[in-house]
Write a structure and sequence with these properties.
Strand content: under 5%
Oligomer: single chain
Order of helices and strands: HHHHHHHHHHHHH
Structural class: mainly alpha
Helix content: over 70%
Radius of gyration: 23 Å
Largest sheet: none
CATH class: Mainly Alpha
CATH topology: MetI-like fold
Number of domains: 1
CATH architecture: Orthogonal Bundle
Mean pLDDT: 81
Shape: globular
Length: 270
């Protein structure tokens, strides 16, 4: 009984630590800057959506939002596609070749992103891809491909080799095996990897800050820096932007979580 009570108390404290700051940020979005500084912890006098309206009316937030959506979705889709092809090829290779290729991608995970900034910027600049969403997407794919290959390869190695041999005997080529067998069975791993990549690409600030300077090419995390001044920060506007940036990720995670569970069930039955 005592241990159960302690667990409830600890869980309640944990929930409060998580919920209270989020609630304060959300309530601050309905205040003006003056109201926020006068009473930072108080409730707003009334729920004014002026900060949200101003973001899309005066701050070009719709463009930033669409840029983030395009960069994130394309980067995640292509990364998953290429990583699944590489993972499938590694699992199909016999001998030491597959291990060498897998080790090559695993080594790519060990190099910190900050180490590559200067040579990566020189490469992107020489290719004429700065201030380009295409260049940003190529960089995102190249940077996160090793992680995706590592996760998907680890899962695909658990698939029985007898299944592939049976498909080969029935006349199926590698492309057909990949589409009809490997991808459906790998849906749990693909869903988990997609969620992980979505969070990484959507919240990424380093590479947009490094490669993007044009206002019409900025993504949401980079655009939020505009609300932070040298002497004064517009916190209500900044927090409103944070809510707009966070909401799609929360909704997307809840949406993909359902498919993640369905993918686990489908994979186990198949």
């Amino acid at each position: 009984m005592a241990s159960k009570t302690i667990k409830i108390i600890l869980l309640t404290i944990f929930v409060l630590i998580v919920v209270v700051p989020v609630a304060m940020i959300f309530l601050t979005t309905f205040k003006s800057t003056a109201q926020m500084y006068e009473n930072p912890l108080g409730l707003p006098g009334f729920f004014d959506f002026g900060n949200y309206i101003s973001l899309f009316k005066d701050q070009n937030m719709a463009t930033y939002f669409s840029n983030s959506v395009i960069v994130t979705l394309v980067s995640v889709f292509l990364t998953i596609f290429f990583a699944s092809l590489v993972a499938f090829a590694i699992t199909r290779m016999r001998g030491w070749v597959g291990g060498v290729i897998f080790s090559f991608f695993a080594i790519g995970m060990m190099v910190p992103a900050q180490v590559n900034m200067i040579p990566l910027y020189n490469l992107v600049y020489n290719l004429g891809l700065t201030n380009s969403l295409i260049g940003l997407m190529i960089v995102n794919i190249a940077v996160t491909l090793p992680v995706a290959v590592f996760i998907l390869t680890s899962f695909m190695k658990t698939l029985p080799s007898e299944l592939f041999e049976a498909c080969t005997i029935d006349g199926a080529n590698n492309w057909l095996i990949y589409r009809k067998i490997v991808v459906p069975l790998s849906l749990p791993s693909i869903s988990a990897t997609a969620i992980f990549l979505l969070v990484m690409h959507w919240n990424d600030l380093l590479y947009p800050l490094l490669f993007i300077t044009a206002d019409d090419k900025k993504t949401l995390p980079l655009a939020l820096l505009e609300f932070q001044g040298e002497y004064l920060t517009n916190y209500p506007m900044l927090f409103s932007g944070v809510i707009i940036v966070s909401a799609p990720m929360v909704l997307t995670y809840l949406f993909l979580q359902k498919y993640f569970i369905a993918g686990v069930t489908a994979g186990s039955i198949k």
